[in-house]
Amino acid sequence: MSGFPILSLVTFLPLAGALFILTIRDQDQKIIARNARYVALWASGITFLLSLYLWFNFDVSTSAFQFVEKAEWMPIIGLTYHLGVDGISVLFVMLTTLLTPICILASWEAITERIKEYMISFLILETLMIGMFCALDLIVFYIFFEGVLIPMFLIIGIWGGPRRVYSAFKLFLYTLTGSVLMLLAMFTMYFDAGSTDIIRLLSHNFSADLQTWLWLAFFASFAVKIPMWPVHTWLPDAHVEAPTAGSVILAGVLLKFGGYGMLRFSLPMFPLASVEFAPLIYTLSIIAIIYTSLVALVQSDIKKLIAYSSVAHMGFVTIGAFTLTIQGVEGAIYVMLSHGIVSSALFLIVGVVYDRIHSREIADYGGLVNRMPAYALIFMLFMLASIGLPGTGGFVGEFLVLLGAFQVSTWVATLATFGVILGAAYMLYLYRRLIFGELTKDTLKKVLDISPREWSVFAPLVILTIWMGIYPSTFLNFMHVSVDNLLQQVEHAQTIATTSSVAEK
């Protein structure tokens, strides 16, 4: 390991914060809770400030992994502690470090029991999420990838709603089932390539038959994480029962694991299988976009509606990634980043009113603009961003995906566009029911508008949403060279396969 270990520092600083919270002792539980909150906020805030070093020192002109750290871990099996980021993963690291302190702030008053344990869970979760995006070794990646399940399982299972235990176990079992297959595939890759190093594996040529099986094994895990139809049913349950901050992390970061995994493993390592299975991906994605949008239209629970909208948005991600065009893949990454900001904000918006009247039912609201005009304004911005209004981050990502899809299949692009229309329908329906109309509910007549703490939570998300819509090149410049290199790898593999098949004939 050489140079300044910035990635290790960013990855493990939250864990150090969690260990520090463990040492907090006092007779007064209020003092313990207060100290735990402040330590968690400081630890996550400093982590975000350190991650800005990656942003300002990243070289956008190369596709090579940067800030690389490598050290022997288990030499007997060739396992190394290997971290690094490229133009794709660095953006997700930044997203994670931004959302975690926002989650801590959002939980400031909402969580009233076992606050110390809650803050520890969130900081450990942050470490695991950052580690997953930085990992350049298969086994290290798998440890972080699966490790995330444990704190998320606890966050939902302890601090969630009435059906929290059911939802936590459903999340755990769904994701674990797919991941076991991925682990078997990783062992196969190790025996075939003789290494678990991701950089070496990216240049290793797996046979066409082996690629098919490896792709299916990885797909089993990534499809659940995204989630794709029909293995999406755990997500609405998890979102409904999770505390607000849990939903934010779940929608903002955890759903991106599957899309990131496809871009890191499925496309560059199994390019022939990716091309072969692209029609399957298109089909499942179109079904997800249209079906979950229709389901969202008939929801009575606000969080469940937004959860189904997340599945629809992730359908755009999988379509874009498998178009294997520069616009499609960059659009897929942009949708993930934009969705990470917008969906997080929407769950926080639900959390604001839930903290006041403790209901998620759409029927319990109406006329909020009369009491909460600032809230109505912020809600409108994120609702329009979710629809994909020009000038917001949502538009840029979806436009690029549709542009890439149109180059591959006009039918795929047309049907995906139909999903955009349905998205507008359910989000406008939600906004009208909550915000407009007469203020008739007694429970709403004394509610207060957004507090200064809540303003501090929404402010960075508002700025980012508009920034991503007005000046997208800020983010596209980071990923462009890495995406171009990824597509060249796929094209090269196809060329080799075509040449060898001609030679055999």
List keywords for this structure.
505 residues; mainly alpha; two-stranded antiparallel ribbon; 20 helices; 75% helix; globular
Write the layout of secondary structure elements.
Blueprint: H1 6-22, H2 29-57, E1 66-74, E2 79-85, H3 89-106, H4 115-134, H5 138-147, H6 149-159, H7 164-193, H8 198-202, H9 208-225, H10 234-241, H11 244-254, H12 256-269, H13 271-297, H14 302-322, H15 326-357, H16 373-387, H17 393-408, H18 410-435, H19 452-470, H20 473-504
Antiparallel strand pairs: 1-2
Protein model, in words:
The protein is built from 20 helices and 2 strands. The protein is mainly α and 505 residues long. It has one domain. It has a two-stranded antiparallel sheet with strand order 1-2. The model has no long low-confidence stretch (mean pLDDT 85).
Which strand order spans the largest sheet, edge to edge or round the barrel?
1-2
Low-confidence stretches: none
The number of strands is 2
**What percentage of residues falls in helices of 4 or more residues?**
over 70%
* CA-based gyration radius: 22 Å
Largest sheet: 2 strands, antiparallel
Share of β-strand residues = under 5%
Estimate nothing, just give the exact number of structural domains: 1
Mean pLDDT: 85
| N→C terminal distance | 49 Å
- Total number of helical segments? 20
Q: Tell me, what's the shape?
A: globular
Order of helices and strands: HHEEHHHHHHHHHHHHHHHHHH
